[in-house]
Amino acid sequence: MKLHRIELRLTRLPLVRPFRTSSSVKSYIEHILVRVETDSGHSGWGECASPSDPYYCPETVATCWHMLKDFLTPLTLGKEWSSLDDFVHLYRKVKGNNFAKAGLEMACWDAVARSQGQPLAAMLGGTRREIASGVSLGIEKDLGVLIALVEQYLAEGYRRIKLKVGPGHDVEVVSAVRAKFGAIPLQVDANSAYTLADFDILKALDSFDLLLIEQPLAHDDMIDHARLQAQMKTPICLDESIHSAEDARKALEIDAGRVINIKVSRVGGLREAKAIHDLCLAHKIPVWCGGMHEFGIGRAANVAIASLPGFSLPGDVSGSDKYYKTDLVEPTIVAKCGEITVPSGPGLGYEPILERIDRVTSRYHDETAK
Ligand code: OSB
Ligand code: MG
Asked: Exposed, middle or buried by CB within 10 Å (0-12, 13-18, 19+), for 23?
C-alpha cells in the first residue's frame, strides 16, 4: 500500500465553556485534521490534537503543521508499506513530535480498517462494546460553579469526576466536593504544577480516598514521582511523563506511578498506545484513556482504543457535547448513562462531515504523489 495523497486542514471550534488548568486557559480549540488517500482508492481521517500553546507539552499546532508538511509528508507520500508497523518505520528518524505523528498515523489506521471493512476497535484488539466515560473539569474561580458542574455530570450518569488542581486550588476544592458529594469516584490532575517542596499539600490530598493523583510533578520527571509514590497511599498516575512504551516500562520499573493515562496523541499514535496498554495489562497496571479536547475524529479514535481490555478505569472520553455545540462527525458522539457505545461500522465508525469541516478550516495544504 502507498499513500497517494495527504491533506492537512487547520480547524477551530469554540468551547462551550472556557477550560482552565494549572498552566493555561482556553476558549476555543484548534486542531489539524489529516486526510489520506491510498493508491487503492481508500481514504482515512486523523486528528492532530496538539494544544496551540506549549504549556502542556513542547509541541504546538504550528510545530505540528511544520512537521507534517515538511517532514512526515515527504517521508511517507508515495512510499510502500504493508502494515502500520511498517508505516511508522518510514519516519523512525524523526525524534519526538508525537502529536504530529499521531494525526497522520490515525488517518492510516482509519484507511486500513475501512479497506478491510473492519471497525478500528476490532482491528486494535478491542473487546468492550461500551466504554466507561468520565469528565475532566477545569479549574473554576467560583467553587459554587464547580459544585454545580459536578452535580450536572453526575446526574448525566458520568462514571467519575476528575478535578483540575494547582497551587491555591487544591485541598479546599477537593474537600468541598467530598463534603458535598460523599464517596463518588473522584480523582485530580495537577498538570505538573507541584514539586517535592509541596509535599504537605500532596500528603493532604492523599487523605481524600482519591482514585489517583495525575501528574503532580514535572512533565519530564519520573524520579521524583517515584519518591512521592513511596510516601503516598493514593496511586500516582502519569500523563505528561509518558511518551512511549519504553517510558512506561521504566516508570513501572522504578514505581514512579501505579496507573497510566494513555493519550493517543501524546504517545505518537494508536500503535504505541496499544503497546503501552499491552505492557500495563501484562503487569496488572490499570490504564485509562485521556483526552485533549478532541473533535469527533480524535474522539472516535479514543473510543476505539478505550475498548481494549486493560482500560479498566473510566477515561476522560466524554460525549462531545461537553465541549462542542456542533462536532465535525455524524452521528454525534454521546455518553448515555456514563457509557459510550463502541461503533460497529468500518474504520473510526463516525463520518466526518466535509461541509462542517470546510466552514471551520482556516488553512489548507495538500500533496499528491507524483
Ligand atoms: O492533562 O489530561 C490533561 C485537556 C487538555 C490538555 C491536558 C489535559 C486535558 C484534560 C481534558 O484533562 C481531557 C478531555 O476531556 O479531553
Ligand atoms: Mg492530565
From this structure: middle
